[in-house]
Amino acid sequence: MEWATGCMASQAHVLVRIMTDEGVEGIAEAIPRENIYGETQVGMVHVINNLLAPLVAGLDPFDVEKVHEAMAFIKGNLAAKGGIDVALWDIMGKACGLPCHKLLGGYRDSIEPSRILWLTSDEVMVDQARELNAKGYRAFKVKGGLDPDADIRRVHALRRAVTSDTRLYIDGNQSYTYFGAKKVHDALRGELDYFEEPIAATNEKDRVRLAHAIDIPIAGDESNFTLHDIAHQIDIDALSIMMIKIPRSGFTYGRKIAALCEAYHRPMMIGSQSESSLGMATLVHIGCALKTISYPCEFMDFDDPAAPSLVNERIRMENGRVYPPEGPGLGLTLDEDAVERYTVRG
Q1: Residue 25's beta-bridge partner residues?
Q2: Which residues of 41-70 are buried (b: 16+ CB within 10 A; e: fewer)?
Q3: Which UniProt keywords apply (predicted)?
Q4: Where is the domain boundary, 76, 98, 120?
Q5: Which CATH number fits the domain that encloses residue 65?
Q6: Same domain for 110 and 92?
Q7: What would the DSSP string read from start to end of 61-128?
Q8: Is residue 228 domain-resident?
Q9: pLDDT tens-digit profile of 251-262?
Q10: Extended beta strands in 172-247, E state
Q11: How far, in Å, CA of 6 to CA of 175, rounded?
């Protein structure tokens, strides 16, 4: 997987398992990204086991605000805390006999997916888009930001290849200059549906300038970690669409972000952090729960039977919509053989 600011040949995630005194286990996938959040797999395991677990042990899993208040003693570590939060919601759902999407809001029964087209040759990206189009996908994130002319050429090719009802958007990973982003927008007028993070979050002047100079929405990601981040982006009017990534927010904090966005009439989308089926199920649950999530939500290759998975269940896609597991909690059971196979010991 390659994008404007990096690449990734393998992934090292953390399986969070929390057991209650009544024998109910909650699970979650915690995702470290050292180049984004500053968290590593080894560091996350240490933080969860040795710093956060002692703070929350003995608390009622339904008292999630108390849990977050306790975890706040340890600064940062958003992804580690997010994993604990999702596992607690899994416990709550199992205890109540309800799926998480019902507990979290229950707004819709399915969501529209989008897929990421990583940086590669134009021909490969076009072939991928055609194949996914045939499977029912009608939205694609096109990785870009390094070369405006190449991005323009690539989107032209993709637009010719996909169906007329397919949405295309470019994720610049904050790598464009103002002039580069404006050039891409102007050349792709009528072909590009929205931008994601075209300009660096530290370059606020040009971010606002671009937002006021183009006629398509701009979505946030790297500038949207916390409630304070999002409130600031709304205040300076730099973004039209807000993104949440459950691995860095959990469900509890994600709902707070959604409430803020609803108050300021900002629609939302869900971003992928290269989750396995376990993590992707959490995205479907929150996507179905919240009214403010109205843009297609990003997924990885959950519909590939050969994709590695830690759970026994498969996420269902039908007629271009993705449906959440319907069992209690996340609706997932661990494949213990797969867990053993993929566990890193050291």
Answers
A1: 19
A2: beebbebbeeebeebbeeeebeebeebbeb
A3: Metal-binding
A4: 98
A5: 3.30.390.10
A6: no
A7: TT-HHHHHHHHTTS---HHHHHHHHHHHHHHHHHHHT-BHHHHHT---S-B-EEEEE-SS-HHHHHHH
A8: yes
A9: 999 999 999 999
A10: 194-196, 218-219, 242-244
A11: 11
CA separation (Å) from 246 to 236, 243, 326? 25, 10, 19
| Mean pLDDT of all residues belonging to the chain | 93
φ, ψ for residue 124 (rounded to 5)? Answer: -65, -45
Based on the domain organization, do 61 and 206 belong to the same domain?
A: no
Which of the listed residues 28, 63, 98 is the one where a domain comes to its end?
A: 98
Which of the four pLDDT bands, split at 50, 70 and 90, describes residue 345?
confident
**What's the structural domain count of the chain?**
2
Q: What is the pLDDT of residue 303?
A: 66
Report how far apart the first and last C-alpha atoms of the chain are (Å, whole number): 26
Which range of residues forms the domain containing residue 57?
A: 2-98
Strand arrangement of the beta sheet that strand 194-196 belongs to: 218-219, 194-196, 167-171, 139-143, 113-117, 297-299
Is the pLDDT reported for residue 3 higher than 50? no
Kindly report, residue by residue over 262-289, the tens digit of the pLDDT.
Answer: 999 999 999 998 899 999 999 999 999 9
Cβ-contact 94, 26 below 8 angstroms: yes
**Residues 303 and 227 both lie in one domain:** yes
Contacts of 225 (CB under 8 A, 6+ apart): 37, 78, 248
